[in-house]
């Protein structure tokens, strides 16, 4: 029997508005449990400030286990358009070797898929965009895996693509899902919506599992801060949602990815006009 592989799936830490109690808890869990790897699916910062990246870098490097890191929409320069277009990843210098890093584990490989873009031909740049080059790079990495190896694809945005051009979650997501479904992909890991989910997406090439992690920030939605503990025994991929509060895994998951690509609205939270699409999240005061 193959050795059981354990991976912690973390997302949306949002340093600058992080939950320090949650971060201390996760770091202790990593130190005690010693997972084979940690996959962070983006948004390690709130506004891509230098001090936020410095704090994120210190926390990530202190984990002392293999880490792979995706770029989230909040990790691209927020206040400096020139930097966003010409040097968008400059502030990752403390963890640049971890960005889109492929990891090889027993019988399982973690393969990145970039879903962020410095610019898009639509107003809301916070949503996902998979370029042809990004998809081809991901597919080539999967195709090069040894026979019998399963892939876990890591992305920031869920690959769901629904609705009209203006409300699609992740542009080219449907194509990516169909291509990944043709390959030995155990699941696609993502974040972005701040709540955990574990759903199966139907594609023309067959079903594909999509697993989302919650948040470790103060920007909680339907559930408290948490992360996914994923185990692979060579045949079955199991997901347990870990939380700071006493909730079962089912209670910690939302049933589906919101169609408008925004986290679920909390009670009492104002609703934006239907014809108003913000360029980015509103500033935090």
What do you see in this structure?
The protein has helices at about 20-35, 50-60, 80-85, 130-145, 175-180, and strands at about 5-10, 35-40, 65-70, 105, 110, 130, 150-155, 170, 185-190, 195-205, 205-210, 225-230, 235-245. The radius of gyration is 18 Å and the shape is globular. The protein is α/β, with parallel strands linked by helices. Residues about 265-285 have low confidence and may be disordered. It has a six-stranded mixed beta sheet. Strands 3-2-1-12-13 form a five-stranded mixed beta sheet, with helices on one face. The longest helix has 14 residues, at about 20-35. The protein has a single domain (about 5-245), classed as Purple Acid Phosphatase, chain A, domain 2, CATH 3.60.21.
Structural class: alpha/beta
**Overall pLDDT confidence:** 88
Strand content: 15-25%
Distance between the termini: 53 Å
Oligomer classification? single chain
Please tell me what the overall shape is. Answer: globular
CATH architecture: 4-Layer Sandwich
Q: What's the helical proportion of residues?
A: 10-25%
**CA-atom Rg in angstroms:** 18 Å
CATH top level? Answer: Alpha Beta
Q: Tell me the number of strands.
A: 13
- Biggest sheet features: 6 strands, mixed
Number of domains: 1
- Which residues form runs of ≥5 with pLDDT under 50? 264-285
**The CATH fourth-level homologous superfamily:** Metallo-dependent phosphatases
N-to-C series of helices and strands: EHEHEHEEEHEEHEEEEE
Strand order of the largest sheet: 4-5-7-9-11-10
Structure annotation, total helices: 5
Here the CATH topology equals: Purple Acid Phosphatase, chain A, domain 2
């Amino acid at each position: 029997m193959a050795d059981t592989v354990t991976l912690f799936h973390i997302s949306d830490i949002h340093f600058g508005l992080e939950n320090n109690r949650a971060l201390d808890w996760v770091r202790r869990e990593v130190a005690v449990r010693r997972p084979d790897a940690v996959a962070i699916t983006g948004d390690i910062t709130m506004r891509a400030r230098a001090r936020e990246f410095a704090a994120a870098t210190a926390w990530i490097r202190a984990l002392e286990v293999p880490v792979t890191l995706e770029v989230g929409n909040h990790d691209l320069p927020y206040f400096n358009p020139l930097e966003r277009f010409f040097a968008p990843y400059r502030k990752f210098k403390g963890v640049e070797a971890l960005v889109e890093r492929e990891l090889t584990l027993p019988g399982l490989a973690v393969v990145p898929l970039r879903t962020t873009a410095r610019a898009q031909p639509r107003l809301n740049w916070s949503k996902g965009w998979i370029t042809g080059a990004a998809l081809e790079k991901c597919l080539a990495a999967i195709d090069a895996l040894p026979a019998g190896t399963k892939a876990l694809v890591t992305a920031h945005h869920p690959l769901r693509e629904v609705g009209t051009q203006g409300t699609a979650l992740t542009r080219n997501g449907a194509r990516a899902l169909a291509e990944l479904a043709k390959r030995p992909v155990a699941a696609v890991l993502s974040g972005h919506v701040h709540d955990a989910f574990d759903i199966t997406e139907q594609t023309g090439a067959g079903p594909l599992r999509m697993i989302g992690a919650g948040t470790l920030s103060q920007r909680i939605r339907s559930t408290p801060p948490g992360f996914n503990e994923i185990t692979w025994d060579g045949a079955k991929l199991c997901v347990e949602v870990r939380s700071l509060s006493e909730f079962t895994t089912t209670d910690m998951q939302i049933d589906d990815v919101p169609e408008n690509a925004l986290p679920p609205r909390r009670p009492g939270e104002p609703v934006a006009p239907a014809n108003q699409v913000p360029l980015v999240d509103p500033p935090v005061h």
